[in-house]
Amino acid sequence: MQADILLYNGRILTMEKQEKTFDWLAIKDHKIVDMGEGNDYISLLSNSTIALDVKGGTVMPGFIDSHFHLVQTAMNEESVNLSDVKNFDDIGREIKALEAKSPGECVVGVRLRREKLEEGDFPNRLDLDKISNNSPIWINCHDYQVSMLNTYGLLYYQIPFRMDGVELDGNGVATGVFKGKANATLRTRILDQHTDIQRRDTISALIPRLMSKGITTINAMEGGYMYSNRDADFVHQHSKDFSIDIALFYQSIDPHKVLDKRLNRIGGCLYVDGTIGARTAALSFDYKDKQGERGILKFSQAELNDFVEECYANRLQLSLYTIGDRAVELALNAHEYAFQKTGILGLRHRLEHVVMATKEQIRRAKELGIIFSMNPTYERYWGGEGGMYNERMGDKYKETNKFKAVLEEGVTLCGGSDSDVCEYNPFLGIHSAVNHPVPENRIPVYEALKMYTVSGAYAIFQENEKGTLSKGKLADVIVLDRDVMNTPTEKLQDTEVVCTIKSGEILYNMM
Amino acid sequence: MLNIRFIGKVNIEYDGMEISHKFSGKALALLSFLLLENKPVSRDKLTACLWPDSTEEAGKYNLRFNLWQIKNIVGSDFDGNELITIDRGFCSINKSYDFKCDIIAVKEAEVGEHITEEQLNDVCKNFRGEFMEGFYFKDCNDFNEIILYERNRMEDLKVKLLLDLVEMHRVKGDINKCLDILLDLMKIQPYDEEIAAKVMNFYEMQGKYSHSIMFYNEFKKRLMSHLGIKPSEVLNEKYEALQSGTVEISQSNERIASVEKNTSFAGISEASKVIHMKATSMENVDFFCISDILKNLSKYHCQKVKGVLNRGQIYDLASIQPLVLSSCGFEDKGDVYNVPTVRVASAFVFMIEELLERGYVIELTLVNGSKLDKSSRDLLDYCSNLDGFNIINI
After folding, report:
1. Is the Cβ pair A184, B226 closer than 8 Å?
2. 8 Å CB contact of B229 and A188
3. Which has fewest Cβ within 10 Å: A137, A308, A428, B353?
């Protein structure tokens, strides 16, 4: 047998066991056909073999991003990233730069942070009109809970005027700032206007960028609240058209809807509570910066029990969004209820984010076989002393994202970026998990790598095909620019992917 | 006759012939401004609003040109009237001109005290979209403000007038028409709790409790999946009352008035005796739907079923749905055996007839009804002919 591709002179991390490594790896017909040490690959070489000297770099399984908003990320790659702007003038500069590329078309800005703005508040339509009245402008804050339109945008889109959350001025005219119900409705109306051609084009443009970061599989969280069902339907119909593997999580509370689509999982960002930033994550204690507020639960216990039981009964893998400990509690109670009612185990249900899970809750999750799908990059953005978690919850910031406790309890822990809320580079997540601002919550590099490989595969029932490197497995393989296991932990975020092979095809190569 | 529509896609017709395309955007803006004001407006104000960046001379010229354009396109009416009167520096719509306009029709309805149902019906037909749909005037901030304000105001007005119309139908006792209007309204205001509460009220007035519950469930699902929120406490309490069968006849004066008007609602006080059920179908599995009905009865209505069947009938039904045993107080000892189809059918029919005899009304919501298995179809065909057994297909 002769190989199509040979990677040699590397440190092949199989991710089966930490100590199980090889020097070379051979690929043929989309699969890994052999691995070994030294030079015993000679017999696999032929004239047609692509032999790549990886020069001591790490070779490992392609990354699995377990929480990724595909369509939104793809669309927003065409948008203005406002995460670093400090004032309205900065916003104006960024918007005008994009507007100049396609005059007259809607300009979308994302990731605007109120706390960073010198003006101390979001811009209203009159502020945005000063930037441009030649194109509709739509700006979203970083967690998509608030959005803003200029006057052109207000007249361009269909505005839900009668809905709570439309901010009005003294004359009863919309200021262009939308929150809550009105914002969610406006979002859906705007997102629904996207065509499938736009979706296809932007996803196609995004995929090479994902490949450049070593991502070969994503869990696409699409549809439902704050998103568009048309996005979910598009991904459902066209996921096979793209060169990346896409596991769709249809965000719906209607099990029959996903069953009709012959999907075997439901949920994703299926909100049990909200966000810590907006003080809507459900906590068991008061927010430090707003006494008396403990967040919002979007289900009653009885409602969630019924829903979870229905998912169990229909043998659907369920993924629930939980941030606060009160939300985690509600979700675990519902799982315990459903398990008692149905006796069904093994569906690998998941909790997404799980930022504030207590140690007792982690223990209960282990008993139920529940997977934690967490987002380490949150700590980079909001963790540590002086960060947003600290501002909202005081000393409780030390209890966010307890990766170490999760692993010690034996709960399967997979990692996602939550793109485009956070950047999708897995090494930012890996770095954040290893360098958690609270030392007790840190995990070793190898465990962080598992989050994005073997555990990610397990979380979507694909551990027999991918997530580790072994003979017969799908050749989703990446090459790193360094020996990642011997890289100083503070340098992990600098790690670059130099080659990405998806199903045996080289789709990105900088070697 | 000239017919001007500014609500929804702008449309101007003369004797049925579309002439909108002959107007420039600014001419349409000018016309709509004068119609909205409905009184003389100074040339200076018009110029400042529609040509704010022009010099005084250019602004005056633009106004003159657009007034001329309107006059030129629409001409004079049969009696020689012009549409726009220009008098000593003021412009206004000539009310003697023979024309119709949606803006004026809704304004009249807004202030009209003795409007008839027919008139209101006609007025409501004017709401075909947003005010000046698709229009935006670059560098005309004041006029853009007017468009925004009017869109907001007209959306409120549309809902108000439609609710006025609903009230008229309610007073007449025509609940079906009330529901038609409200359900249409829900299509454009899909998250409006006030309208949703009215829909539920009207279903209850008709005694259609299952419709009310189904409507609530759909509404709740829509709110939760699209907006991530639950219905208000008020709506939720209404739903809980319906579910538990404790809906009270005297929930509101409005309702009593309606019930009194329509004697067909006489059975409404028996609300607590309504059994709501949902069942699904599977074409190739015999008795699947009946088994699902029995599961539902066993889980949620076991008190009502208790004492209806004898031991033999319970075991006959348990052969297709084991939960029947526990709900009737029997322990499942593995002593349930397959029985001939006729015994299952006979026990089921007996149970339904007995429940109806005891005064219960059964509301069965059938999911996937087109895929009923044969035995279930035969039994449900039979039951649907019994008084008090209602099937709703979804």
Report:
1. yes
2. no
3. B353
A298/B155 touch (CB, cutoff 8 Å), yes or no: no
> What confidence tens digit (pLDDT) does each residue in B227-260 have?
777 888 888 888 887 776 655 433 433 433 333 3
Q: Which two tokens stand for residue A213?
A: 């970061």
* Average pLDDT of chain A to the nearest whole number: 94
Structure confidence by residue, pLDDT tens digits, A375-413: 999 999 999 999 999 999 999 999 999 999 999 999 999
State both tokens at A162. 């009668």
CA-based nearest distance B152→chain A, Å: 6
Asked whether the ipTM of the predicted complex exceeds the cut of 0.90, the reply is no
Binning pLDDT at 50, 70 and 90, where does residue B309 land?
confident
C-alpha gyration radius of chain A? 23
- Nearest in space to B391 (alpha carbons), one of B204, B214, B181, B200: B214
Position B192, amino acid: D
Contact assignment for B229 to A298 by CB distance below 8 Å: yes
The 3-state DSSP class for residue A222 equals strand
Q: What is the pTM of this model?
A: 0.76
Spell out which chain A residues touch chain B, with contact meaning CB-CB distance below 8 angstroms.
Answer: 129, 133-134, 151-152, 154-156, 158-159, 161-163, 171-174, 181, 184-185, 188, 224-226, 251-254, 256, 271, 274, 298-300, 303
Question: Which of A190, A225, A229, A273 would best serve as a mutation to test chain B binding (most B beta carbons within 10 A)?
Answer: A225
Q: In degrees, to the nearest 5, what angle opens at C-alpha B115 toward C-alphas B114 and B120?
A: 160
A398: tokens are 């030390």
- Give the pair of three-digit tokens for residue B234: 């008020």
